[in-house]
Amino acid sequence: MNCKRGTIHVLSPKYCADIHGDTLISIKTDEPIGPLTVLCVSLINGTLCDTVAAELIPDHDGTASFVFPAENHPHGPITIRICGGEGPTRDVCHLQLYNTSGNRDIEHAEHTPLPEDIRKLGLKLVYLDDFDSDDLSISRDDPKSRYYSHKPGGGDFSQMRFSDFESDVNPFSHKDTFIRIRADLEKGSSGLISCVKEDGSGFSACAPCYFECRMIGPNAIGSWPAFWLINNHVHRGLHVPVDELDTIEAYGLEDLDHQNQVGYYCTSHRWNQGKHETTDPDPDCFYDMTNNGNHLNWDMCFHTYGTLITEDETVYYCDGEPIFRHPTQPISKKDPFFFMLNLAVGGNGWPVDISRYGKIDLYADFIRVYARE
What we know:
- This protein is mainly beta.
- The protein has three helices and 25 strands.
- The longest helix has 6 residues, at 116-121.
- It is globular.
- The strands form five sheets. Strands 9, 13, 14, 16, 21, 22, 23 and 25 form an eight-stranded antiparallel sheet that branches. It has a seven-stranded mixed sheet with strand order 12-15-24-17-18-19-20, with no helix packed on it. Strands 2-8-7-4-5 form a five-stranded mixed sheet, with no helix packed on it.
């Protein structure tokens, strides 16, 4: 499982800890890698910007520390990136924290505009979970719950197992106005929520429809945060023909030569559809987030990710802007879709190592679906 622990470690606070106000952050490097640069997102004149929080020169024993002014940074989940070295010695440590102080101006859903295309189509809001309630309503067995904690029809894919809300390794929690899904190395658990249950009951929508989620994910080797759609009848089993639309698949440091890769994948899969799987390449797109308005990656701040399905086109969005489109596939035109949100770790053959952190977190602010009433 291990492939690289890194040379930069945070001694305090603990990874994924709550912080408030001025916070002392202590660092140690395993080997000399020279000066360190500390980066974090700030809200400046109403715009999110990546800013330098500190520049450090470790002592002879590799230790360094600085005071992080949490009040000057966004409230809620934040990621502090500590960078050092060059070439083969380069390392980036992603320190996930939860800021209980800080700026709340960007916290709420109304700051994310609905794409103009959806308004033109006259689609109406038919599903909303803004995670304001501390009742997460997630269950493996309760038919009255809002979410199911596994992939319907089988095929859970995380190397660290998708675990249940009712279990002693529960990966789900509610924090302010967010749902948190945690992957925990010690517990061997990670999490997925599905709005359709194992028996096919739950929420789904037919084209034309638009699904979106506002989220921030972790960036650790092998982490796999995703928001994705699949046809409702997948609950019948793994061999049923279905379309899968991956609104965002974000791969945490999946290739050690690409530690600073800034972007994610949108992909369409046509499962169990005979010749299409061997003769027609599935449409996909790597979206370079340096092309986004604020150039901030999916692990640095919240973004809103969406997929629109019409009879003609399937279009993927980031923060209300279309980034990729392809013709709508035949199954997508007629069969309803439902959504899943997950934090997987591994499961697709790439290197996995979250041992530096021990635990990593995905936060979602809301999930919305628009369709014809």
